[in-house]
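retry 2 of 3: previous attempt timed out while embedding MD6. Reduced batch size to 1 and resubmitted. Inputs unchanged:
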Amino acid sequence: MTDAGGYRYTALDPLSGEAWPAMPGCLHRLAAESAAAAGFPGFDPEACLVNRYGAAARLGLHQDRDERDFGQPIVSVSFGRSALFRIGGTRRTDPTRAITLDHGDIVVFGGPSRLIFHGIDRLTGPEDPVLGDSRVNLTFRRVTAPG
Ligand code: MD6
Ligand code: FE
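retry 2 succeeded.
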C-alpha cells in the first residue's frame, strides 16, 4: 500500500480493512518454478504487486528495496503490450540498456542482480488482443524473512 507515509507492505487492505485476497495457487507455482529455473530454489512469495500501464505510462529508474531479505529474488511476469525495460547496475549512474519485455515474458531478479536499477521507458508495439493499448505486470515478492 502507499500513502503520505510512503510505500510499504501491509497484511490488510487499507480500503476494506480486510486481508488481501489469497494469491492464486497457479501463480504462486509459476513464480516459484520460475525462480527455481533461474537458480533460486525454495522461493515462497507472499505478495503479488499488480501494475497496469496505460499507453503513456512510465516507471522511473528504481531499486526494489522495501523487502526484508535481499537474498530472496523477485519474479516479474508481463502481459499485454510490450514494454522497453531499462536495466542498469547497482549504482544509479551505472550504464543502462533496454530490453523488450513481451507478453508472457518472465524476469527473475536475484543474487547479484537483486538490487540493480531498472524501470519502464515506455510501451511499444501493437495493441494486445486482450489488453488493448495496456500492459499488466505482476511482481512476486517475499516480503518478510523466509522461515
Ligand atoms: C515492470 N518491473 O516490468 C516493472 N521490479 O513493469 C519492476 O519494477 C521489477 O521487473 C523488480 C524485479 C523485477 C521487475
Ligand atoms: Fe522494480
